[in-house]
Amino acid sequence: MNETMGQIIRRLRRERGMTQEELAEILGVTFQAVSKWENDAGMPDISQVVPLARVFGVSTDTLFGVSDKNDREEVMKILKEAQSCLSKPLNSKDLLRKYRILQEGLKQYPNDTVILTQCLETGLALSYPENGDLYDADNGQTTYKECIRYANLLISHSGNTSDIMRAHMIMVMLHSAYGNYKEAHQHIEQFPTRADYNIHVMYRYFAHWRKEFDKEIGSCQFANMHYVEAILNNTTQLAAAFLKTGQCKDAIKTLETELALIQCLFEDDEILPPIHYREQGDLFMLLAEAYLRSGDHEKALENLGKMVDYDLIEYEKITDTTITASPLLRAKAHEFYIKRIDRYVQTAVKLTDKRFAELNGDEKYQRLIDRINKQ
User: Fold this and answer.
1) Distances from the Cα of 135 to the Cαs of 120, 288, 328, in angstroms?
2) Domain boundaries, the chain
3) Which of 41, 315, 347, 355 has the most neighbouring CB atoms within 10 Å?
4) CA–CA separation, 347 and 341 (whole Å)
């Protein structure tokens, strides 16, 4: 049996985690009007159809029950084709191919928030100057301007709070990187003072009072995963900033504490997850750099050795079924073990980075290189 328009609106609203009140506020109508639509007691005015489609990121045909399934299938094909462009290690040429496929898909489905989000994320990778080899210097400025348009579309039309805040975050990063500080500040002002209350924390309270304690445990573990990622991201950036300002001792202490935290969280696991691979770099590599810059060659080599050990032995043991035993994080047991292509860098590339040039000629350093070359 085909869905009515009211059923379609209810389904799309719920899929995006919106209340009737939130949808009504976005559209400038009363929540009673939304309720009538969803109960098929009334129909949206024709002037509301396009705004509704934009909020949900679908075509107007979808609201009328036309080609919804086919559209979804086509969108999934576009996303799959775009993702298939990537290979390990990730490089800017493959990333640019993915970006172009997504852009073509967006021409066909201009209101699809999934394609929009992917365009924005891929555009960020290509246009952010500190992305190393992924930064596309030839097209960076153009891609940056395209990202502004994608972000504005998401902020204006998405009903998903996470997508909206991620768009604001990307704009803070890119506007700042390209010197447009006034615009960056405007996006900063959209963030709440506190960010520790997320959907999983709310479900924690909800489950607690319903005495659904298994669900409460899962919600707590989901929230913990986000907190762990946030701590690691912030701490790594702190260490990188210490390095840039020559505060090597503080960088060393920060990175060692971060690695100790990972060790503590996953002490019951035979294999540590590859979460020391951060956007700012491999933590062992950053620590080796900090020790080298402070004059301690032995400690630098020790951490490069740990990096090689993990890459060649532990990382290769991880499979699609590897999970964590940690009671703090068990609800997302596999999440930490996903081999993210956007963070993986070949060991040889890391080991022979120019920052370790002064180790050339050192026997221990050469043995590490030889070990890599034998693989």
Assistant:
1) 14, 24, 36
2) 1-66, 68-191, 199-373
3) 347
4) 14
**Which of 192, 150, 157 lies closest to 174, judged by CA?**
150
Q: In the chain, count H helices and then E strands.
A: 19, 2
Which pTM does this prediction carry? 0.74
Q: How far apart are CA 311 and CA 170, in angstroms?
A: 30
DSSP reduced 3-state for 72: helix
- Residues 6+ away with beta carbon under 8 Å from 269: 324, 325, 326
Give me the CATH topology for the region 68-191.
1.25.40
Task: Tell me which amino acid residue 351 is.
Answer: L
- Say how far apart CA 31 and CA 9 lie, in whole Å: 13
Distance, in Å, from the CA atom of 365 to the CA atom of 61, rounded to the nearest integer, reads: 63
Paired tokens of 85? 């462009």
pLDDT digits (tens, 9 = 90+) for 264-319: 999 999 999 999 999 889 999 999 999 999 999 999 999 999 999 999 999 999 99
CA dist 285 and 307 (Å) reads: 7
pLDDT for 70: 62
Q: Are 272 and 260 in contact (CB under 8 A)?
A: no
Under a CB-based contact definition with an 8 Å cutoff, are residues 331 and 217 in contact? Answer: yes
- CATH topology for the 1-66 domain: 434 Repressor (Amino-terminal Domain) (1.10.260)
**Residue 338 and residue 322: Cα distance in Å, rounded?**
9
Spans of the chain, pLDDT less than 70: 1-2, 66-70
Beta-bridged to residue 282, according to DSSP, are 277
Q: Are 134 and 90 in contact (CB under 8 A)?
A: yes
How many Cα atoms within 13 Å fall on the side-chain side of residue 273? 29
Amino acid 347 reads T
